[in-house]
Amino acid sequence: MAMCSILNADDIKKALDAFADEHTKFFELVGLKAKSADEVKKVFLVLDADNSGFIEEEELKFVLKGFAQNGRDLTDKETNAFLRAADKDGDGKIGIDEFAALVKE
Fold this sequence. Notes:
Blueprint lengths: L8 H10 L4 H7 L7 H11 L6 E3 H4 L2 H5 L8 H11 L6 E3 H9 L1
GO molecular function: calcium ion binding
GO cellular component, one term: cytoplasm
Organism: Dissostichus eleginoides (Patagonian toothfish)
């Protein structure tokens, strides 16, 4: 499933251009905060590249590319900050409920 079938392409571009270590602003700019729980789950499934049911650290580094092919890789600092913000149970990965909670922050 393409991300553009869930989110507006122009909003994705604006959010990618503005992303700077601030996931909450990114989710707002991309329009994800306003989406239903079902649509947030669809976005999670797109980002979960290996279909494990989790977004692991390695997948998280490429999360912006999940929104657009020309998205950049996250730096190690951004990846770690994103993981710390989302991983509420401390297992080192982001589950669907953790992702949904992070989006709605």
